[in-house]
Fold this protein.
Amino acid sequence: FDASSIKHLPQIDTLIVDKTGTLTEGHPAFERAIAQPGQTEDEVLRLAASLDQGSEHPLADAIVRAARERGLVLDKPEQFGSATGIGVHGIVAGQQLVLGNAALMAQEGVSLDTAPELAADADAARQRGASVVHLAADGRLLGVLVVSDPIKSTTPEALAALRAAGLPVVMATGDGLATARTVGRQ
């Protein structure tokens, strides 16, 4: 803040805060990979981490860190690109990969119709407030990766104080609706 910002604070009627790193710890932790039948969890993690080496997003860092901790050998991504707020794409080991949220999968024509177990596990993760990232190769869903970012211990008290002062608070996030609603309720 500078003096001008502080002077205008009384005029603020709504506070919009980013979820990651503001309401949450900002240090996401990889929980698990969930593979489609015919895939392995380690391969889903390895491919996602190989692609994510080019990303600076906190979720990407958690995925790459987890793969390296497991000793998985990562390939160098080629033609890496990012779609702001929805994911990344590139070529790894000759496969055209996309890694991101449901909006990116829809944009890329990837069907999210999955094995019932994968869908149930992904939904359960979202209901706990975890982020679910989809991985597809050559237009086919390979699996999902579950990453969580715990809410800061100071967040509930800070939000209560803001609301008590009459200031509505809005959470902004690139997460899916189910995850956003769960974190919002918490």
Q: What stands out?
A: The mean pLDDT is 91.
